[in-house]
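Extended Data, record Alpha/beta hydrolase
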Amino acid sequence: MTETPTIVLVHGAFADAASWAPVTRLLLDRGYAVLVPPVFNRSLSGDAAYLRSFVEQISGPVLLAGHSYGGAVITVAGMADNVVGLVYVSGYALEEGESLGQLQGGFPDSDLAANLVYTPYPTGGSEPGTDVSVKIDAFPAVFAAGVPLETAQVLAVSQRPLSAVAFGEPASAAAWKTKPAWGIVSSADRTINPDVERFGYQRAGLRRIVEIDAPHLVMQTHPAEVAAVITDASVELA
């Protein structure tokens, strides 16, 4: 491949596209084509289908980078023909047929589980759905550790919840089986047990695994290091 891929940055649960802002700025400044679509956090299958449709409308090769739950989304959406590589950032590298709950359940709980809020929402059907979010007062320490408090407080009150069904929904595919992939472990992560990240990456046989002494929102606290892994992957693919 000689064409530099478009880099598509995929956010995770309890966040939105703005969580990638520092890395987005660095990549744009270096001349990369970058897109940061929304993830609606309604279901793994639905979110992956939306992302795949988004990617398939991009002309040329695409490098997907997924943070946290976004890692699960790119695992499935990465089956699109024009996806040439995957980068997992503090993310879930699911096996085909495996759910978030199954992967995470094999390791001691992080600090996240005790700080979740469950809220019903209308689905248009006979049964309501359940939104999962992080307690606002716990968000800065658990989800946004390392981020300046003023910023963390804004992120806390603007978080995008994740539907509870996404935790138990199995991945319909595992793109890392056929696409080259790289991974970043946030070794100071309090949202996902870092061993969940390590296990998933090692099982997937990623080309390179980089450990950063960083919290969950590593894109906010260590944007240069994250951008370096993504650009190195892009260079290898080109």
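Summary. The two ends are 5 Å apart (CA to CA).
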